[in-house]
Each structure stands twice: as structure tokens, then as C-alpha cells.
Amino acid sequence: MIHYSQKTKNFTLISKQTQLTLAVLESGHLCTMYFGKKIGEVDLNYLLAHQRDANYMAFADGIVDFQPEILPLTFPSFGHPDLRTPAFQIMHENGNRISDFRFESYKIHEGKPPLKGLPSSHVSGKVQTLEICLKDQTKEEFLFLFISVFEDYDVMSQHIVFENRTAQSVVIKKMLSLNLPFLQDHYELVTLGGAWGRETHVDVRQLHMGSQGIDSKRGISGHGQNPFVALQEIGTGEEHGEVYGAGLVYSGNFVATAEVDMHENVNLQLGINPFDFSWTVLSGESFTTPEAVFTYSDQGLNKMSHIFHRFIIDCILPPLWKNKERPILVNSWEAAYFDFDRPVLLELAKASAEVGAELFVLDDGWFGQRNADNSSLGDWEPNEEKLGGSLESLVEEVNNLGLSFGIWVEPEMISPKSNLFEKHPDWVISCEGYTPQLSRNQMVLDVSREDVQEYIIEKMDRIFSIKGISYVKWDMNRSITDAGSLRLEAYQQEEQAHRYVLGLYKIFETLTTRHPDILFEGCAGGGGRFDLGTLCYTPQVWSSDCTDPITRLSIQKGLSLFYPSITMGSHVSAVPNHQTGRITSLETRGAVAMAGNLGYELSIPDLETSEKEEVKKQIAFYKKNRELIQFGIHYRLQTVHPENEKAWMKKSRNGKMIYVTYISILSTPNTLPKRLRLLGLEEGAYYKNVETGERYLGSELLNIGLVLPKITSDFSSAEWIFEKQ
Ligand code: GLA
User: Fold this and answer.
1) Does 642 score more than 90 pLDDT?
2) What is the pLDDT averaged over residues 13-32?
3) 521 CB under 6 A from ligand 1?
4) Torsion of CA 539, 545, 548, 549, to 10 degrees
5) Nearest-CA neighbor of 214 among 205, 202, 226?
């Protein structure tokens, strides 16, 4: 529900449990009075009564003590007279960087408008959008704030459109998507950080005065930081405490900051990174920011995750895929790397079919002269000599084994050793006079160029049109350095990074529309582009190149804060693990991989017979419980020794089935097993352990917990399935 009161000049935006209240001040400034638990439509103007009591700030409009710098402004500008970090900045032809946007008008739309050139959430259930128009006081410049309320999901979203109706062009130096002000600072900042092979580790830090936050300057959202951020009340846990979470529907450079000002207020900001960014808006043109989505939980992190998970499945993933179960795959990468021929592939495929896998994925190495990572990216012609015939005939043979066929591509890249580079050296992202630096022996195509976009679309379309291909892993194996374009004018060079992302989205949009039945899995050296922008096109993402189950515990826990299990690719691989050298049991590798979309990434033909039998059992178990695992409600459980023991559970959407997983990292001598309390059960209902037949009351499992097994070795796991009686 969105309502504007003429009397109070308050906008009240209410979902089932959440509320956002904005107010238009007499001066026309727009303020965010409140965001949090639903309180109902009340006049909140009194909240600003004491805002005039601060000292030593500049006054606006010549009114003594009217100090915008201490107001919770919804979309603050810089220097007229607010001196906090602004949400946007516009540079004018005369060099002026000051703006003064005030309320002009509003509209309320049913549903929500699409964003020009950018992916965004789609409508599910009741959605209304408030469009607020702000106008600069001295010129014909307009800011449109679009705030959508997803009533049934308790999620709100916001994007901004800037319109230049003056006769001159202007340069946007900064234009974020969201600025959320809070009138206190008793919070911790929660982010997901890491590096290649150890992405999305949860990082929690207490707010201090000044600015703190995360960003990416890597051209992609990146392994280092994920475009998700939350503020949590100090002391928040999985089941208690207030949390405000936000994420960006964008796959490029971003910034997320929390700035504590001089009066202990916080502004939480999220959007395109203003560093190395500018955008010229010609007279009569406009600029649209990516969409930010945000929510509030009054019951800790698990509830925030549940809200986002439902929303992402229903409103972010391509609608065709939102309820579709995902196949169990075998991927050739860690099984064979570049070293394969047709017999090797067919042997792997045959063994995969025998253990019950459903999809065979041919990873890197099938095209051009690609026998190592130093050549052929861009030459998307199958290497028929290596494949022992055409790609079409290989797909057919694999299909005949009862498996569907998937293929790996890395379309945004170019190897210096490739026919494409010989033909089009100017297609590479580079700055005049500098040789672009290599990473993994490759360079990046200037995806902002239309000719490059057309080339990629044409090449990929040919491959994706091969009969029998039902899955594509879309990879991107380096960050973007030397960010410049040989095609863009000098004044547009800082537009390169954003233009790249827009170009990528155009390619994704075209190819996914042409091939709606193909399941796309996003990847960027693992989880380097795990974000909502990517998920609008690829309903799942390869979580990390590290397949070691113990490393994966932190990666997958971090992802689960924001992203639902159905978006997470997670595979069982060989031991010793290729990234960490760790040896873990097949049971534990299976238990961890079964937190998401299960796959195997090892040479199945090389397994012992007993191991093959175990894999068969794992696959049969997964198939039986697939809907529960992929779409169940995911709870992170509290263990007695949180550093050494990890546990989670999934509850089917109808509440009938429960799947609990417990992992003990290192074993400790002379300890007695403790108990693991479950969550989200019905107190009065009985739950039957389907393996042993033992029955427990929901209240027992909630308050006493499951008795854990005695642990006698490192990297142990235990799993339980319960059925509600
Ligand atoms: C990246 C991916 C891997 C694999 C290789 C192939 O690293 O994340 O899964 O596909 O590329 O080169």
C-alpha cells in the first residue's frame, strides 16, 4: 500500500510487515522519516523537531537553524549546504557541481516500470510503485525516484532516473541507487568478502564515525566484495535482532557504504561506484541507475535471508526457471581439464549416466586450439580433431547415453593467440598508448561496442542452437584492467565500465530470449559475478572455484545470507582437493554439495567400485529430496562451537519435510556429543526420522535439539531427514 497524506505531506509505503515513510518538508526537501517494522500510517513529522538543535551547520533558504545536513534526506546532494557524502553529483558546463532538488510532484503506479537497458525485478503478487519527481531549483533538471513495494514479499526496491531538460549537456559524477538514512548508529555492518577460491565470507564490523564500506573497481561485482550489505543492531543473531539488508541488481563496479555523521546518524548507500565513473547526459536525455532492493527483519539474519530468498526466486530469476528443479550434472573440468579426446569424454559421460547423473557438461578446451589457458578465446569453432568429430555428433552421442548436454563458454574474452585478435586487435579493452595487461593469459573484449556485441551474439547463437544443448556455463575469468575504449571519445572514457555492463546485459537479454529453454549458469572464475544482475539472466551461478567442502562451508554460508540455495552451483570433487590439498570423506563432500545444486567434478571412471556405489546413493538421495533441497527454506543453525561446527537445515515449502546437515571440522578428544536445536518447526507436531523411525515432538527438537553423533575423525558429517506426521 502506498498513500500520500495531503495534510502531513507524508508518503506511507507499507508491505505486510514493513514500512517506509517519506516526508516532504515545507521547503520541498524530501526526507526518509522511517524504515523498519510496520507501524501504520501516522504523522511522523515530529521526528524532526530536534533536528534544529545542532550547531555549526549552514542554514538553507536563509532560515535560522534550518540545517539540511542533519536531516535524513532521501537523496542528498553535496554542498548546498549539506556536507555529508552525497547520493549523487552533477557537473555543469560552467563547472558548477551544486544541485538543489526539491519536491515537484508524485505518481503512484500499479506494478512497476521496467528499467532502460538494465535488468530488474519483476512483479509478483501485489506491487505498487511510488514515483517522486524532484526538480532542481535553478534549472530544468529532474530526478525521478521510483520506489516499489512488493507487498507479499516485504521487499522494497528503488532506482533513480535523472533527466536533463536543459539546453546543455551535463556530466554525472555520481548517481547511486539508494540512500537509506537512520537516526541512530548503534549498528554493525555486515558484508560478504573474500578472494578467488574463498568468496563471500561473512564480515561483521561495528560502525564508527566516518565512512566505512565495500566496493568493486574490478569491472565486475568481483570476488573481493559482493553487492550486498546489511546493517544489524548490535548483538543480532540468526533468530533475533533487527536487520536492514540491501542488494544491487548490477554486475559491475559498485559501492556500498555506511557513513556515521557528526550526530550519530547513519546513511547507508548503495549504487554504481563513482570512482572512475562519469556519464555525460546530453540535452534532452536521461540516465537510469540500477535497481537496489532492500528489506527489514525484526527476527535476525535468518528472517532477512528468508525474505530475500523468496523474493529472488519469484522476482529476480527468469520466470521460466523460478520453480524448475535443476539437473544433477557432471562437469569435465576437474575430471580432465584441457586433456581430453572423444573417448575420454564418452567414458566420463557413460560413467556419469551409470551413477544416475542427468547432465554432462563439457567445460573449457573444446574450441580453436585451446589445449591450455593461453590461446583461442574468441575462436568459437569446435576443435573437431580433438573432439573426434563434430560437436553435434558428440552431443548426440551423449544424449543417447540418457544425459542432456551442457557446454562452457567465455564469450567476453579474447586470447592474444587467436584468429580473432589477429583480425580485430582494436576490439580489446585498452587505453591508447598502453598495451593491455594480461590476466590468465587473456584480454577482455570491449563489450560496450556494438560490433563486438553482434559478434558474440552470432557466435554463441550458433553454438546454443545445436540440437541437444540444454545448459550453458557462461564464464568470465579475469577482472577488467586498462579500462578504456578505442572507440569512445575522450570525454566518454569514464563511461567504459558501465557501458560494458550494459553491453553484457544486451547480449544476455538477446541470447536468453532466443534460448529460453537453456539453463544458464553464470560464472566468473567461480563466484566473481554472483549478483542479482547476473541472476536476472542465469538462474544459477558457480559459487566458487574452490570445491573443498571445508572451504565451501564459509562460502556457502555467506551466500546463504542473501542468495537462495537454488542459485548456488555446488559440486563434489576429488581428493586430495585440487585447491587446498585437503582429504575429506566422500560423505562429507556430498553433504556440503547438497546444500545447493548438486554436481560432480571428478573422474567418475577412476573411482573405486565402492565409491561409485556411494555416489549412486548420493544421487538417488538427492533426486528423492531435490525439491526440498533446492527450494526448501534454508535455516542457518546455531552450534555449540560455531567455529568448528557448522549446521543448517532446509524445510520444504509445505513444512512437511526437514533436511538437517551437521559438519564437524576438527575432531576433539574426550568430548561428549552435544545437541543441535532446529528451527521453524511446529511445536505440537511430531517429526519422524525417516531412516530410524524415531519420533520427536517439534517442541523437543526446537528446545532440546537433536543429539549429535560422537565425532571420531576430522571433517565429519551427519545428515537427517524428518517427516512431519
Ligand atoms: C574458470 C571456472 C572453472 C572452469 C575454468 C575453465 O576458472 O570457474 O570452473 O570452467 O574456468 O577454464
Assistant:
1) yes
2) 98
3) no
4) -20
5) 226
- In testing the pocket of ligand 1, which one of 442, 477, 601 has its CB within 8 Å of the most ligand atoms? 477
Q: Coil, strand or helix: which one is 474?
A: strand
Q: What backbone phi and psi angles, to 5 degrees, belong to 697?
A: -75, 145
Ligand 1 centroid – CA 526 distance (Å): 7
Whose CA is closest to 477, among 193, 254, 199, 222?
222
pTM here?
A: 0.98
Centroid of ligand 1 to alpha carbon of 462 (angstroms) = 22
**Residue 102 confidence (pLDDT) above 90:** yes
Do the strands 243-248 and 225-233 form a parallel or antiparallel pair, or are they unpaired? Answer: antiparallel
- Please report the beta strands in 137-265, taking only residues with DSSP state E, as ranges in sequence order: 141-150, 155-164, 170-182, 187-195, 198-206, 210-215, 225-233, 243-248, 254-260
pLDDT digits 0-9 by tens, 326-370: 999 999 999 999 999 999 999 999 999 999 999 999 999 999 999
Q: What is the rounded CA–CA span in Å between residue 586 and residue 591?
A: 8
Q: Report the alpha-carbon distance of residue 290 to residue 178 in Å, rounded.
A: 10
Measured from the CB, is residue 545 less than 6 Å from ligand 1? yes
Atom 6 of ligand 1, residue of closest alpha carbon: 364
- Please tell me the distance from the alpha carbon of residue 536 to that of residue 248, in angstroms, as a whole number: 12
Choose one of 361, 545, 555, 570 to mutate for the ligand 1 pocket test, by most ligand atoms within 8 angstroms of C-beta: 545
DSSP assigned state of 627: H
C-alpha cell at 145: 525516484
Read off the amino acid at residue 594.
Answer: M
Beta-carbon contacts of 128 under 8 Å, excluding residues fewer than 6 positions away, are 1, 2, 108, 109, 110, 111, 148, 149, 151
Tell me if 362 sits within 8 A of 406, measured CB to CB.
Answer: yes
Q: What is the mean pLDDT of residues 590-615?
A: 98
How is residue 653 written as a grid cell? 515449502
**Nearest-CA neighbor of 456 among 521, 487, 410?**
410
Which pLDDT score, from 0 to 100, does residue 50 have?
Answer: 84
In this structure, the residue with its CA closest to atom 4 of ligand 1 is 333
Ligand 1 nearest-atom number relative to CA 373: 12
Backbone phi and psi for residue 307, each to the nearest 5 degrees, phi listed first: -60, -50
pLDDT given for residue 660 in this prediction: 98
Q: Is 283 left (phi over 0), alpha (psi -120 to 50) or beta?
A: beta
Collapsed DSSP state (helix, strand, coil) of residue 489? coil
At 125 the three-state DSSP class reads coil
Which are the contacts of 41, defined by CB distance < 8 A and separation ≥ 6? 3, 5, 10, 12, 14
Task: Please check the confidence at residue 51 and state whether its pLDDT lies above 90.
Answer: no
533 pLDDT higher than 90 = yes
CA-based end-to-end distance of the chain: 38
Q: Which residues neighbour 475 within 8 Å (Cβ) at sequence distance 6 or greater?
A: 364, 408, 409, 410, 523, 524, 525
| Statement: residue 53 has pLDDT above 90 | no
Is 545 labeled as catalytic in the residue annotation? yes
Four-residue CA torsion sign, 678, 682, 683, 688: negative
* Cell 527468469, located at residue: 318
Pocket mutation for ligand 1, best pick of 340, 364, 568 (most atoms within 8 Å of C-beta): 364
What does pLDDT average to over the chain? 97
Q: Which three cell numbers stand for residue 721?
A: 531427514
Answer yes or no: are the C-beta atoms of 588 and 549 closer than 8 Å. Answer: yes
Q: What span, in angstroms and rounded, lies between the C-alpha atoms of 587 and 390?
A: 38
Residue 692: pLDDT band (50, 70, 90) is very high
What pLDDT is recorded for position 52? 81
Residue 405 has phi, psi (to 5 degrees) of -120, 135
Q: Which three cell numbers stand for residue 513?
A: 530470449
Minimal-distance CA residue to ligand 1 atom 11: 525
Q: What is the DSSP pairing of strand 540-542 with strand 568-573?
A: parallel
